[in-house]
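Please go through this chain and its backbone structure tokens and walk me through the local backbone shapes. Keep your notes short.
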Amino acid sequence: MEIGGSHLVWILAVFLASAATVRLLLVWLQKRAILDRPNERSSHSVPTPRGGGLAVMAVVLGGWAFLALREGAPARLGVLILASLVLIGVSWLDDRRPGGMSPLWRLIVQIGAVLLGLAALPPGPVFQGLLPGWLDVVATAFLWLWFLNLFNFMDGIDGITGVETIAIASGMALMVNLAALHPDLAALSLVLAASALGFLVWNWHPARIFLGDVGSVPLGFLLGWLLLTLASLGQWAAALILPAFYLADATITLFRRALKREKIWQAHRSHFYQRAVQQGWSHAQVSARIGFTNAALIAMAATSLERPLAALLAAAALIVGLLFLLSQPRHPS
């Protein structure tokens, strides 16, 4: 799918629809006093409406449903839309319930969504034949489940999830074109990117609205499907490179907390990006640096078409550098 004038108009329409829908939802959330109130684990200091994911996902799923009805669309998109709706419903209840839902019940629903979503993946093995067929399916489900949760874990400061969604989805669209994959995969990706950009209008620091689990969980689910699809179609290196920052920060933080015998399912402020804010970086500075790094990761993903191992090593070095930077106190000079 080459990006021509008609496609740019369509992308602009999705962006405007997202920005307008989020704005309308913001007013409704304020009237209903559905607010994220600061606590000792928060990275914000004033009560802020939470639940912007309702608007973002309405636009995303509307766009995906439109594409699903087109002739020649990727098979079983309806399965993904149905699973996303279930995740949205449960996550909204979790956002509204004081203290949240039981982690076990959330996990059960997420496992069900992932198992349902497996039917929408292409037939090729995600791990490129390195694992037996049954183990490939099990490992894919586990990886998908981990990705949608880490995407939720990483949504902790203004702008970060919008920036990450735009980067992964835009990178996916580029890879689809470079590798000559199913053109609707690019269209699906661009719906996500444009919708996230519309949300970012209201979520850039200082944020006027938060995404909430109702947005971060289904976004992680759909982005996970795109990345696993990319891997199953042979572009495994790009599928690892595009989300490399989120993968690295969330996974390293998880292991560090597990070693300290902390409850890893509870909210905290120990991610690299959160510690950067605690050490004097603004939300905008952290999100911007993640965005610049993601732009470089997209270039490395493109390079992986010819040199996958070299691109992976370069991406790893870049992520190590960013994590080191975020670990340093910010000096006024």
The chain has 13 helices and two strands. The radius of gyration is 19 Å. The first strand starts at residue 35 and ends at 36.
